[in-house]
Every structure is written in structure tokens, then in C-alpha cells.
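Researcher: I'm preparing a figure for a lab meeting and need a structural model of a single chain. I don't have an experimental structure, so a prediction will have to do for now. The sequence is pasted below. Please return the structure as C-alpha cells so I can convert it later.
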Amino acid sequence: MREFATSADVISQLREGWQAVLTGVLDAAHARRASTPS
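Model: Understood. Here is the structure written out cell by cell.
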């Protein structure tokens, strides 16, 4: 059970990290798209 708990904790941390990375990339892409005239 302890291994399962630690693995779940690691998975949750990875999920939060990926969400932060994805939001940062999306924000950067959105800012770049807004700054460039279409």
C-alpha cells in the first residue's frame, strides 16, 4: 500500500507539473499570436 501511495503522489505531482508547463506554453503561444498582426 505504501508503494501505491507514493506512486500516486508522484503521479499527482507530475500531473500538476505538466499542467503548469502546458498553461505556460499556451499563454506564450497566445501572447505571440496576439502580438503578431494577422
